[in-house]
Predict the structure.
Amino acid sequence: MTDFNYTFTANITTNAVNRGEEAAAAGGGGKGWLAALAGALGGMLGDRAVKMETMMEKLNDLNAELDGLGENDQAGREQNTREFQTTLTAFQAESQMFSILSNASSTALKSIGEGVTAVARKQ
């Protein structure tokens, strides 16, 4: 499990650094590399949040659709319920990915910041 956590965090951090460098090259220069990393990680979290919001809207639409179905439309109600549960499960998975990314981002930024602080003290 530790190897997975390390690899996952390392991949997220590498991806974030690459995104931060791309943003700096595109005109976002002047920021430090730690700020670029934080911005890129925040962007990744934002992407996950947008996906979650889209899924939540779909859940709301399915719920409204279910309210509009008649009591006699059993097949329609069953289909709606299946689709609702499928979407809800995907939303829960996306929420967990958001949580993992959020924790990994926080840990990475904190660890890097503390490491830089420790090195600066030794100078």
About this structure: The CA atoms of residues 9 and 104 lie 6 Å apart. The chain has one domain: 2-122. Helices lie at 2-28, 33-68, 74-122. Residues 2-122 form one domain.
